């Protein structure tokens, strides 16, 4: 039976409420937070009291009323984890060994090797229909095995340079940071790919690689200004890093409990490793198991559109149930806070109604013009693919005469609705963060001025980090200036005359603002979204008729701050593991340089071999270009045709109009919360998350949401509340094991079976693996 402690809180400024909900929320800031919002669900317990108080603590059995004594030494003291402060204290161990070496030979050898490995895998995944990403857990597990093998070599004499002693958690974390930085998909590479695929522009390889470096380093340079707001405080939890640090500490910290936890990890890892072969290759029907589709047998388009989910751009996946963790994990059910998940579920439910209703009422003319139900490509009025080369000049500017003769492009109805709801989310995000977190933003600027050691932040991990030298702000400034100089130079000398130098600076400044906004959302809720719609609308009016300039504006205004978020997350992992900031800086910088080169090289190989498939609006089971198709579609419509398609009275005027509506959406909820602070509903509904997921489904495959709902509810509600011991010990470790095992086997399958290194090996067709020329994976769609 779970036990809940009673008594005073460690943070007198936090209002305690009687409700027993257990979510980490964007609006609930623990000790050290400055938010003006009342933390409505951050219920406190005496498990966080000091040692003297713990000895006298009485705890109440939830729902029973019995009081039993507990001492501070009892290992099995049950604490229901409520928010960021409890996770930082009860799940993440604050211990530190200041003498542990970090930048060792092992670090460089394993870090660079795994960085190369991850960068290659990341670029392969980018061109896959599943939208998979490389998890840091993948590199973490491989590094653990190889690091301990290297630690078996002699460690005396000159061997000490090769093996300085036991493989420690700081070395291990630095390796993960280096490799995960290299594995973050460089969006600048995708823009170079689009220039090749859609504009017949082959950027010089040297210019291309340097350009990728520069854009990523711009994002890196912004990190230095955001650390005091988004790294040091407890409320900046970065939920996606909790499974990583949980596994790292279980691997490196001794004790019987950690031995049990590692046994649990390897059992779960092995089980998912073996299982994933079944849905990924032998029995793909399990990636989207739909009773409705099986009953319909592919007879009705409506059933396919609403319930189908097995093939790329097939359907919305209502009641489709995946048994494939590579898909399920994209819903983040084991580590996203419950509030984040609930808001995403609300948005998904609305999405089913909105997308289906809009299509069958012919919003935007998608149905009447014979367009597919789902696709991110552009089409003509008769449903064929839109040939953008017919409306562009040789310099890739809009040819108005040719445009008027050829006609305007059409979005599919679902894609236009998705862009609309996404812009709602963009606008709501800006207002939401300003309303709920303006004090934290101000405090962050104050911290930037004072420096690391002068900040008044009460966080157990930050306190340990005060003993290490920080990277001086002038170093970040130097990286920023050098990156900007390179970016401006390559804009003119890359052979494409992509964007003026002043525009590079302008959109970088805009991107810095959005790095702050997106950073708060990601750090506290684990959720992030794209603000690319805002950037492209601004660019459409600054650079009218220029699609290439519009893409480059996105690269500096959105993709650079997106890189900032990835690097801030790694810096938080470094703080959790007590890696000296300078070592983290070195690891991230090295990963950025290495990853850019390898991703560029692999893009050339993949696009060279599969260009026709990647240009196809639907793609295949193995390869799909939906990522670049969507980016290019928006570049054409916003960049070349912004005034012809988005102004008042034009076909898609409602897409940019949604930005203004989104700005206003959070205000009523905030006002109601201020008026009725004890009614949780007003602060619980996170409008940016809900509106973002209202348009989430018209992409790729969609069998992951219903199993994600079940697993998320079991983990973040039932296990947190009714099995708190298990939750603290094993929940995040289970997430690490499932992600790690899946990533390892998926890598093997890609190279051994799916054609990444040689010809693909097709499993014999049978009922659970239908012929793709006849039926979709879930048997919901009959191929004409």
From TrEMBL:
Membrane topology type: Multi-pass membrane protein
A GO biological process held by the record:
protein transport
Keyword DNA repair set for record: no
Which InterPro entries does the record match to this protein? Oligpept_transpt, OPT
Q: Name one GO molecular function term.
A: oligopeptide transmembrane transporter activity
What are the record keywords, sorted?
A: Membrane, Peptide transport, Protein transport, Transmembrane, Transmembrane helix, Transport
The record's region (Disordered) falls at: 1-49
Question: Which stretches does UniProt call biased (Polar residues)?
Answer: 7-19
Where in or outside the cell it occurs: the entry states: Membrane
Task: Provide a GO CC annotation, any one.
Answer: membrane
Report the Pfam families cross-referenced here.
OPT
Please classify the protein's predominant subcellular localization into one broad category: membrane
Which stretches are transmembrane? Answer: 107-127, 133-152, 173-195, 264-295, 316-336, 342-361, 474-493, 499-521, 582-606, 652-672, 744-767
Record-stated family: Belongs to the oligopeptide OPT transporter family.
- PANTHER family in UniProt: ISP4 LIKE PROTEIN
Which NCBIfam families does the UniProt entry name for this protein? Answer: OPT_sfam
Tell me the protein's name: OPT family small oligopeptide transporter
What organism does the UniProt record list as the source?
Kwoniella newhampshirensis
């Amino acid at each position: 039976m779970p036990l809940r402690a009673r008594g005073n809180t460690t943070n007198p400024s936090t209002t305690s409420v009687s409700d027993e909900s257990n979510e980490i929320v964007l609006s609930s800031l623990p000790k050290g937070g400055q938010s003006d919002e009342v933390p409505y669900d951050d219920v406190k317990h005496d498990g966080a009291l000091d040692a003297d108080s713990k000895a006298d603590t009485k705890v109440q059995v939830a729902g029973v009323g019995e009081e039993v004594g507990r001492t501070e030494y009892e290992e099995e003291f049950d604490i229901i984890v409520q928010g960021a402060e409890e996770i930082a204290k009860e799940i993440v161990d604050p211990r530190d060994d200041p003498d542990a070496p970090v930048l060792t030979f092992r670090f460089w050898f394993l870090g660079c090797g795994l960085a190369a490995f991850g960068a290659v895998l990341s670029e392969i995944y980018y061109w896959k229909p599943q939208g998979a990403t490389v998890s840091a857990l993948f590199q973490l597990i491989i590094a653990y095995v190889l690091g301990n093998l290297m630690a078996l070599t002699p460690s005396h004499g000159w061997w000490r340079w090769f093996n300085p002693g036991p493989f420690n958690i700081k070395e291990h974390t630095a390796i993960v940071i280096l490799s995960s930085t290299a594995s973050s998909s460089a969006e600048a590479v995708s823009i170079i790919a689009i220039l090749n695929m859609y504009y017949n522009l082959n950027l010089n390889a040297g210019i291309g690689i340097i350009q990728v470096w520069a854009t990523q380093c711009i994002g890196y340079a912004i990190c230095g200004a955001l650390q005091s707001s988004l790294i040091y405080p407890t409320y900046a939890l970065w939920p996606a890093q909790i499974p990583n640090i949980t596994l790292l500490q279980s691997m490196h910290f001794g004790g019987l409990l950690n031995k049990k936890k590692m046994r649990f990890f390897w059992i779960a890892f092995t089980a998912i490793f073996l299982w994933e072969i079944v849905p990924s290759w032998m029995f793909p029907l399990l990636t989207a198991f739909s009773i409705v589709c099986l009953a319909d047998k592919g007879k009705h388009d409506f059933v396919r559109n609403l319930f189908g989910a097995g093939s790329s751009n097939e359907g919305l996946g209502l009641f489709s149930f995946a048994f494939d963790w590579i898909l399920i994990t994209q819903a983040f059910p084991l580590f996203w806070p419950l509030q984040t998940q609930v808001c995403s579920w609300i948005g998904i439910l609305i999405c089913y109604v909105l997308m289906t209703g809009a299509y069958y009422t012919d919003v935007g003319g998608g149905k009447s013009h014979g367009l597919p139900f789902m696709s991110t490509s552009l089409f003509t009025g008769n449903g064929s693919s839109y040939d953008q080369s017919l409306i562009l000049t040789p310099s890739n500017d809009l040819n108005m005469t040719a445009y008027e003769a050829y006609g305007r492009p059409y979005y599919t109805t679902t894609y236009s609705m998705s862009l609309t709801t996404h812009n709602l989310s963009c606008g709501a995000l800006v207002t939401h963060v300003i309303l709920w977190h303006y004090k934290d933003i101000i405090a962050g600027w104050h911290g930037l001025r004072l420096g690391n050691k002068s900040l008044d932040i009460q966080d157990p991990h930050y306190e340990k980090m005060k003993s290490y030298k920080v990277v001086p702000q002038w170093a970040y400034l130097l990286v920023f200036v050098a990156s900007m100089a390179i970016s401006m130079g390559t804009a003119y000398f890359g052979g494409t005359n992509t964007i003026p130098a002043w525009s590079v600076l302008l959109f970088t400044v805009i991107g810095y603002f959005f790095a702050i906004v997106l950073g708060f959302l990601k750090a506290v809720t684990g959720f992030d979204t794209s603000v690319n719609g805002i950037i492209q609308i601004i660019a459409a009016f600054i650079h009218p008729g220029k699609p290439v300039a519009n893409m480059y504006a996105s690269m500096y205004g959105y993709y650079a701050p997106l890189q900032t978020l990835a690097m801030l997350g790694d810096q938080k992992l470094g703080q959790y593991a007590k890696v000296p900031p300078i070592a983290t800086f070195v690891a991230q910088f090295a990963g950025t340089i290495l990853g850019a080169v390898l991703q560029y090289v692999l893009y050339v190989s993949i696009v060279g071999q599969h260009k026709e498939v990647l240009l196809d609006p639907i793609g295949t089971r193995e390869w799909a270009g939906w990522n670049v198709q969507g980016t290019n579609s928006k570049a054409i419509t916003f960049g070349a045709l912004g005034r012809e398609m988005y102004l008042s009275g034009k076909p898609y005027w409602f897409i940019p109009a949604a930005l203004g509506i989104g700005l206003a959406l959070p205000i009523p909820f905030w006002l109601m919360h201020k008026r009725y602070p004890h009614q949780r509903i007003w602060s619980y509904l996170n409008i940016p998350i809900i509106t973002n997921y209202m348009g989430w489904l018209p992409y790729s495959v969609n069998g992951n949401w219903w199993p994600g709902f079940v697993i998320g509810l079991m983990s973040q509600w039932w296990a947190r509340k009714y099995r708190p011991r298990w939750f603290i010990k094993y929940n995040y470790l289970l997430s690490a094991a499932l992600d790690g095992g899946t990533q390892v086997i998926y890598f093997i399958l890609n190279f051994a079976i799916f054609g990444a290194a040689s010809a693909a090996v097709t499993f014999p067709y049978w009922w659970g693996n239908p012929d793709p020329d006849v039926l979709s994976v879930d048997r919901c769609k009959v191929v004409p």
